[in-house]
Amino acid sequence: MTPRKPVDTGDPDRLYTVTGGRSRADESFDLVTLIVSESAPTPGMQSEHARILELCEHPVAVVEIAAELGLPVTVVRILLGDLLDTGRITARHPRAAASVASLPDSALLQEVLHGLRNL
Q1: How many CB atoms lie within 10 A of CB 100?
Q2: Distance from CA of residue 112 to its chain's centroid?
Q3: Disordered: where is this region (predicted)?
Q4: How many CB atoms lie within 10 A of CB 44?
């Protein structure tokens, strides 16, 4: 087994500056939470905040924002928390299934998968 390479999370000094030294991310943002801008960027706004507002004119998942900005998800969650606190974004959280019984039957999913593979 080959050892895994460490993930490059960026220059620590830059990440410290971007987050204002904060390391606690807002846990309310799941990777698939959709973010939508409620306002346009304003002059003097932090560049990462402005870029998020530009990206989120239409719903965009948190993980997509992180990929587009080239920042770790934790840093993006901190930035999103700032924007949410000021009312500049709204977050659309994914709906959870009401219960396990409401989920599709695994046998049906297997049949669909086999059908798709046969296409």
Answers
A1: 6
A2: 29
A3: 1-20
A4: 6
Contact 80, 19 (CB under 8 A): no
CA distance 72 to 61: 14
In whole angstroms, what is the distance from residue 2 CA to residue 91 CA? 39
Residues in the chain: 119
Six token digits for residue 117? 């593979």
Residue with tokens 């905040």: 49
pTM exceeds 0.85 = no
Residue type, position 58, single letter: H
